Write a sequence for this structure.
């Protein structure tokens, strides 16, 4: 698997699917959620909410509305929007996203920082959890993972975590 770190808006990635953290009720949470809703439309979250409840550690795949990608992988990290998460929830969410990508045959996915901001994880904790799961993934797909964010500190943390994982 090829892993790239890129300063990018996850809602503008030309990949098969992008990952968004959510609540168990399918409400998109985190820094990527507003851009995904604004550019993709409310149908993305509406589809996720229709499939709720979704267990933490599971993932669902919806359409992507008007986004460049074709699918959105929703990974619950919290019971309710605004809840703080533990590092294990970031790990479980990343693992679930990778498994969903494999099951659906997605070649390329984009993963933003998971659990940072209101989730309460430091960028370093989130990056280590995400990179550990990406490096440990043994499924045939995805072939390429883009670790993306607009937050420079998150990007540096992704790069540091990748260096330490080698």
């Amino acid at each position: 698997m090829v892993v790239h770190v890129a300063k990018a808006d996850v809602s503008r990635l030309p990949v098969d699917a992008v990952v968004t953290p959510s609540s168990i009720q399918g409400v998109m949470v985190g820094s990527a959620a507003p851009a995904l809703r604004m550019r993709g439309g409310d149908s993305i979250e509406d589809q996720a909410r229709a499939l709720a409840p979704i267990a933490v550690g599971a993932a669902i795949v919806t359409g992507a509305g008007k986004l460049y990608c074709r699918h959105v992988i929703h990974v619950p990290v919290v019971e309710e929007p605004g809840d703080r998460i533990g590092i294990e929830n970031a790990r479980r969410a990343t693992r679930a996203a990778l498994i969903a990508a494999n099951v659906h045959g997605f070649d390329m996915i984009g993963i933003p920082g998971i659990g940072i901001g209101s989730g309460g994880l430091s960028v370093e904790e989130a990056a280590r959890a995400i990179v550990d799961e990406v490096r440990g993934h043994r499924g045939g797909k995805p072939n390429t993972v883009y670790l993306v964010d607009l937050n420079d500190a998150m990007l540096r943390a992704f790069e540091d975590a990748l260096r330490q994982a080698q």
User: Anything to note?
Assistant: DSSP finds five helices and six strands in the chain.
